[in-house]
């Protein structure tokens, strides 16, 4: 059912466009397309590799160390996700750009800049997702490892890696798709049309050329390439490990040697150095420029409303789908569901929006329903972020509780309140939070359907920039970052207060 | 329950009564009607002159407006489309949706005499390279000097595939260099810091100090002089001339409000409309004004020569010229 909704929504976006295109005849293709595809894949592959390889030791270090500022660092890790691309780009340029703090020594424009920005966006995301998996490992395992005298490498090999490897394919697929779909980062930091991704080509054919045929073929190419890669990756994914749940608090006995302390210190410092300077740069340019007026207040409320609404839909869909996938014995179907959840990242929002417009405008007055379309599109776009924390957790819970529940005859609401909610509270909260954050930073849905009364924080930033008000825009960007930080803090408070209960 | 239904019915009737007043729906680009744009003031001014309601619908930019029209076709709810420029009008007329404006063309005060039957201009500005006087003592004096100048002094450009100024600069290069444009783009390449998807990103990078030059409009310094009281950012005057952007509006032939639409296009050329343009849209008025322009506008660069392709030429060649640009810069 939920799968049907997603596939329906994607098909509703894609098919009219293809049909519209077919009416105009097939488009021509030249050497341009292969070049674009190869650049797209190259930058996405490198960005993913870098993000995941750095995130792995970072997540490990964060899992076994308690230090001052750890909580704050984790919250900061969620901020890049909420920043609209242009804000993050200006932040990165404030640090590494030609007028930046460390700038001047090298040119950031080109592949370097693209990779730097993508690692800034995705490394913290990957680390955060990996950390939730590591924290799910029961304390007994570490106690046992300590009794057996496991060394560092053995702890990793026998305890941490089995747990991480089940999540790493999903995380890598997500990041790969995010980097494939990256638009503003690639254009601004890529330095020119030599850095053109498929997404840019699709946007061009849909916009300036108004060539739906070309756009739909390119979107199909993107769907095929990415879908195949994600599908193949899914075949290598290992099953989620099931641990008997205990109530002991996780205490780590490993990593007490001098060497590993230093190594973790270095890794955490590196992570801090990657993530915080651009955010600090956003803060510095924003301070003193915040214009507290009705417009800003209105934008904050609109963003919050859209964020919460789309996150609710997204989490509900993701929850149902993850449950279905986890109970699905055939890997093929399971991968198909995973793929459907990632579809919104493969299908450019501009394609979806145009298709929806074509299908819906004869039935309803689109401008009156703009807010619902924005919410739906944002919900779809947030689905992959919801999937990543939810699926491993739900799959874990299904394997652990399904038989027990059916033998006890626990079903429906009773099961939900007695089993699922308590067990899944943490991943659900994380999924919801991520979905809200993704919607907060999203600009595409609002520009595609937005009306003059519907102004979110990113839309306000763009409006201010479009009217020469760069300083006001910097102020609004700071409000967005602080707002996101506050939301994360609130969510964590809530989650902790329930932990103690 | 009955009460709820009757309230509902009453509100529907009330709403339809309110609708009975004629409504003029105008599609335009989003920044025209945002808080700092001219849209709100124009609505107020126009509604004083007629017993009607003006409804703005904001859609991305000029290209997005035209695409929305193409998607809607004959079912469009627009009575007027405002905010296309002369690079788009041939394509717009090609949709068959637009009707002749019937306004006196002599009312248009554009650098070249106005001849279009379908569209009337409401403002214009020449594209220009804006430079930061604190970082660049001697700006280029011609497009040639820009192309062949010191590659460590960079410029931020916009992408012609996604932005109007980007396309404008591409046409500027083409107007000056013709068949040799591709070679000149290659010569210019080392000077290009980056090419952004839109004007906002480019201008943001420029004011952040990433590069001493950016492609914008001759009118940009007026904003900094009027609103920020600084003459730090200035336009470089190029001896080959500057490419012109004229923003226009046209009416939908099949609109039930065609008479009202025609009246609006006439209103557009009067001082009530035109006085709002300079300090709200930061472009030059294309019709008669009552209040004199702020002093800052007297200090702007006035191009010695205006460069402009006809809408038909742009329409026929745009795709090929963009491909040529792509090939020149991609290798």
Secondary-structure map:
The complex is a heterodimer of chains A (501) and B (331).
Chain A: H1 2-24, H2 32-64, H3 70-82, H4 85-96, H5 111-135, H6 139-147, H7 152-180, H8 184-190, H9 198-206, H10 212-236, H11 258-286, H12 294-326, H13 331-346, H14 349-360, H15 370-408, H16 412-441, H17 444-449, H18 457-466, H19 470-500
Chain B: H1 2-19, E1 22-28, H2 30-33, H3 39-49, E2 52-58, H4 62-72, E3 80-85, H5 89-94, E4 98-99, E5 119-132, H6 143-148, E6 155-158, H7 164-177, H8 181-188, E7 192-196, H9 199-207, E8 213-217, H10 220-227, E9 233-236, E10 242-252, H11 258-268, H12 271-274, H13 277-281, E11 284-285, E12 306-307, H14 311-330
Parallel strand pairs in B: 1-2, 1-3, 6-7, 6-8, 10-12
Antiparallel strand pairs in B: 3-10, 4-10, 5-8, 5-9, 5-10, 5-11
Helix pairs in contact in B: 7-14, 8-14
Short overview:
Chain A is mainly alpha-helical and 501 residues long.
Based on the model shown, name its key terms.
heterodimer, A: 501 residues, mainly alpha, B: 331 residues, alpha/beta, 12-stranded mixed beta sheet, 41% helix
Q: Mind explaining what this structure looks like?
A:
The complex is a heterodimer of chains A (501) and B (331). By secondary structure, chain A is mostly helical. Helices cover 78% and strands 0% of the residues of chain A. In chain A, helix 1 packs antiparallel against helix 10 (212-236) and helix 18 packs antiparallel against helix 19. The longest helix of chain A is centred in the C-terminal third of the chain and has 39 residues, at 370-408. Helix content of chain B is 41%, strand content 21%. Chain B has helices spanning 2-19, 30-33, 39-49, 62-72, 89-94, 143-148, 164-177, 181-188, 199-207, 220-227, 258-268, 271-274, 277-281, 311-330, and strands spanning 22-28, 52-58, 80-85, 98-99, 119-132, 155-158, 192-196, 213-217, 233-236, 242-252, 284-285, 306-307. Chain B is globular, with a radius of gyration of 22 Å. The model of chain B has no long low-confidence stretch (mean pLDDT 91). The chains are: A mainly alpha (501), B alpha/beta (331). Chains A and B meet through helix 4, helix 8, helix 9, helix 14 and helix 18 of A and helix 2, strand 2, helix 4, strand 7 and helix 9 of B.
């Amino acid at each position: 059912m939920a799968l049907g909704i997603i596939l329906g929504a994607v098909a509703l976006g894609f098919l009219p466009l293809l049909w519209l295109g077919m009416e105009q005849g097939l488009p021509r293709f030249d050497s341009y397309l292969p070049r674009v595809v190869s650049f797209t894949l190259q930058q996405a592959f490198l960005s993913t590799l870098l993000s995941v390889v750095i995130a792995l030791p970072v997540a490990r270090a964060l899992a076994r160390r308690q230090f001052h500022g750890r909580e704050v660092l984790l919250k900061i890790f969620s901020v890049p996700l909420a920043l609209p691309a242009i804000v993050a780009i200006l932040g990165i340029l404030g640090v590494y750009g030609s007028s930046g703090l460390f700038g001047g020594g090298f040119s950031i424009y080109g592949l370097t800049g693209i990779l730097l920005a993508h690692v800034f966006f995705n490394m913290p995301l990957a680390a955060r997702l990996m950390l939730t998996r590591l924290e799910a490992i029961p304390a007994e395992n570490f106690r046992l490892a300590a009794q057996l005298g496991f060394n560092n490498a053995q702890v990793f090999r026998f305890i941490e890696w089995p747990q991480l490897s089940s999540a790493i394919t999903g995380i890598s697929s997500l990041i790969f798709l995010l980097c494939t779909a990256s638009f503003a980062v690639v254009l601004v930091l890529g330095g020119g049309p030599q850095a053109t991704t498929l997404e840019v080509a699709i946007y061009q054919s849909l916009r300036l050329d108004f060539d739906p045929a070309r756009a739909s073929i390119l979107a199909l190419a993107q769907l095929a390439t990415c879908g195949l890669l994600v599908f193949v990756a899914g075949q290598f994914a290992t099953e989620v490990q099931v641990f008997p749940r205990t109530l002991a608090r996780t205490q780590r006995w490993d990593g007490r040697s001098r060497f590993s302390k230093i190594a973790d210190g270095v890794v955490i410092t590196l992570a801090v150095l990657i993530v915080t300077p651009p955010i600090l740069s956003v803060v510095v340019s924003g301070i003193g420029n915040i214009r507290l007026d009705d417009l800003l207040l209105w934008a904050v409320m609109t963003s919050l409303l859209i964020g919460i609404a789309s996150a609710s839909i997204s989490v509900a869909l993701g929850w149902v789908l993850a449950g279905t996938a986890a109970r699905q014995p055939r890997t093929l179907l399971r991968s198909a569901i995973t793929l459907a959840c990632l579809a919104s990242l493969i299908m450019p929002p501009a394609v979806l929006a145009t298709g929806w417009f074509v299908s819906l405008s004869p039935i309803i007055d689109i401008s009156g329903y703009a807010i619902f379309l924005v919410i739906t599109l944002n919900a779809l776009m947030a689905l992959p972020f919801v999937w990543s924390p939810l699926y491993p957790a739900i799959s874990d819970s299904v394997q652990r509780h399904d038989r027990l529940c059916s033998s006890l005859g626990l079903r429906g609401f009773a099961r939900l309140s007695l089993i699922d909610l308590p067990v899944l509270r943490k991943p659900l909260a994380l999924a919801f939070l991520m979905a809200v954050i993704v919607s907060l930073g999203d600009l595409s849905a609002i520009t595609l359907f937005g009306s003059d009364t519907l102004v979110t924080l990113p839309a306000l930033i763009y409006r201010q920039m479009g009217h020469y008000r760069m300083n006001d825009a910097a102020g609004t960007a700071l409000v967005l970052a602080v707002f996101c930080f506050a939301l994360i803090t609130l969510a964590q408070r809530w989650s902790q207060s329930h932990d103690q209960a | 329950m009955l009460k709820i239904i009757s309230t509902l019915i009453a509100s529907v009737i009330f709403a339809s009564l309110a609708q009975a007043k004629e409504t003029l729906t105008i599609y335009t680009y989003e920044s025209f009607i945002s808080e700092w744009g001219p849209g709100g003031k124009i609505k107020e001014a126009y509604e004083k002159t007629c017993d009607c309601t003006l409804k703005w619908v904001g859609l991305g930019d000029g290209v997005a407006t035209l695409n929305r029209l193409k998607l809607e076709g004959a079912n469009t709810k627009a009575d007027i489309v405002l905010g296309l420029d002369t690079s788009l009008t041939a394509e717009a007329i090609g949709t068959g949706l637009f009707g002749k404006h019937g306004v006196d063309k002599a009312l248009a005060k554009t650098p070249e005499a106005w001849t279009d039957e379908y569209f009337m201009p409401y403002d214009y500005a020449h594209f220009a390279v804006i430079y930061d006087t604190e970082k660049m003592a001697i700006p280029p004096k011609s497009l040639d000097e820009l192309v062949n100048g010191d590659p460590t002094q960079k410029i931020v450009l916009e992408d012609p595939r996604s932005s109007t100024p980007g396309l404008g600069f591409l046409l500027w290069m083409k107007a000056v260099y013709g068949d040799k444009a591709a070679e000149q783009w290659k010569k210019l390449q080392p000077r290009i810091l980056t090419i952004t998807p839109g004007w906002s990103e480019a201008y943001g990078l420029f004011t952040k100090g990433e590069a001493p030059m950016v492609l914008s409009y001759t009118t940009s310094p007026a904003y900094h002089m009027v609103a920020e009281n600084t003459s730090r950012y200035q336009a470089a005057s190029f001896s080959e001339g500057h490419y012109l952007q004229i923003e226009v509006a046209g009416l939908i032939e099949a609109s039930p409000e065609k008479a009202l639409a025609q009246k609006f296009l006439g209103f557009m050329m009067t001082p009530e409309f035109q006085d709002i343009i300079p300090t709200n849209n930061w472009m030059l008025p294309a019709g008669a004004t009552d209040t004199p322009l702020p002093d800052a506008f007297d200090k702007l660069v006035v191009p010695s020569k205006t460069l402009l392709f006809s809408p038909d030429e742009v329409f026929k060649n745009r795709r090929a010229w963009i491909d040529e640009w792509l090939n020149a810069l991609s290798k």
